[in-house]
Design a protein that fits this description.
Elements: H1 12-17, H2 27-35, E1 40-44, H3 51-62, H4 69-72, H5 81-87, E2 93-97, H6 106-123, H7 135-145, H8 151-155, H9 157-169, E3 173-178, H10 182-187, H11 193-208, E4 214-221, E5 238-240, H12 255-264, H13 271-278, E6 281-283, E7 286-288
Parallel strand pairs: 1-4, 1-5, 2-3, 3-4
Antiparallel strand pairs: 6-7
Length: 289
């Protein structure tokens, strides 16, 4: 069997649209939406385990601006019509990645934060023309998109976008924050660490605390750095780490996954070698690669 593998691509829709090999992990959607729904949940995993791929999969499944049936066609989640009919492309989504938000000083970090917010605004520019949005919010949206907003507005950006989307679509919003901890981790040990931590936690507090415009917040990262924060709004984030039995096999490859990959690529005899290279992780009670 000939397979096309792109090991550097971490965007779900692109992998599916371009026909690259994909290990079906869509059951995390059912597990989360039906069985483990929380207002704010963090998927914490080491690097290179597929966190961004998982976050973009959530985005593409939920996003009301998309029609995702074709890219999910043939995957396990489509066997559950109740989940598909209730959630697929039924909710507005704010998706932001913080993986490039770092720098040698706070000004550089903030500029990269502005860029990340601006990219999110570009994905949501349809709401700018909505007559249902508050005119003042539309003015702020323009400044955010042009990277002209100050720190206070930028920290509130996700909250403002959620309000505008709720007004436009009449539905509360899923907020998806990929690599939320990169700015804080990169700033560790620097003189601007406290400023960066304060900025990111302040941003999170606007959407993770009780917010009538937010359906839920889904985060990914390597670390659970916000616990016991002075911002009460981020203390309610539920961490799902490598120690948690919930979602244990949802991010990363199980033994069964690895055997299937090797069979599909015509290399089943390489199992022992792959085990020697990549085995040794235990997520919950699940052996992972």
């Amino acid at each position: 069997m000939k397979v096309r593998i792109n090991e550097s691509l971490d965007d779900f829709s692109q992998i599916r649209q371009k026909g690259f090999y994909y290990v079906d992990k869509t059951m995390i959607l059912k597990e989360y939406l039906e069985d483990s729904f929380r207002s704010a949940i963090l998927f914490a995993r080491p690097r290179r385990f597929g966190k961004t791929l998982t976050m973009t999969m959530f985005r593409d499944f939920l996003d009301i601006q998309q029609d995702s049936r074709e890219i999910f066609k043939g995957l396990k989640i489509m066997e559950y019509p109740d989940v598909v009919n209730t959630y697929m492309n039924q909710y507005p989504v704010v998706f932001i990645s913080l993986k490039e938000v770092f720098g040698t000083n706070f000004d550089a970090v903030f500029k990269n934060f502005q860029i990340a917010v601006s990219r999110t605004c570009n994905d949501l520019k349809k709401v700018l023309d909505s007559d249902l949005s508050d005119p003042v919010d539309r003015e702020v949206f323009v400044r955010l998109r042009r990277k002209e907003s100050g720190q206070e507005e930028t920290e509130q950006s996700l909250d403002i976008l959620c309000q505008m989307l709720k007004e436009h679509y009449g539905k509360s919003v899923f907020v998806i924050i990929d690599e939320y901890d990169v700015p804080i981790a990169k700033a560790l040990g620097t003189t601007h660490y406290d400023c960066v931590q304060d900025m990111i936690e302040h941003m999170l507090s606007y959407v993770c605390k009780t917010n009538k415009n937010v359906e839920a917040v889904i985060l990914s990262g390597c670390l659970y750095t916000v616990k016991n924060s002075t911002y009460s709004g981020v203390n309610n984030i539920v961490p799902r780490t490598v120690l948690s039995p919930t979602f244990a096999s949802s991010i990363g490859f199980t033994d069964e996954d690895v055997r299937k990959i090797l069979n599909d690529t015509g290399m089943p005899e390489q199992y022992d070698t792959v085990t020697e290279w990549y085995d040794g992780y235990l997520f919950g009670s699940e052996k992972m690669f």
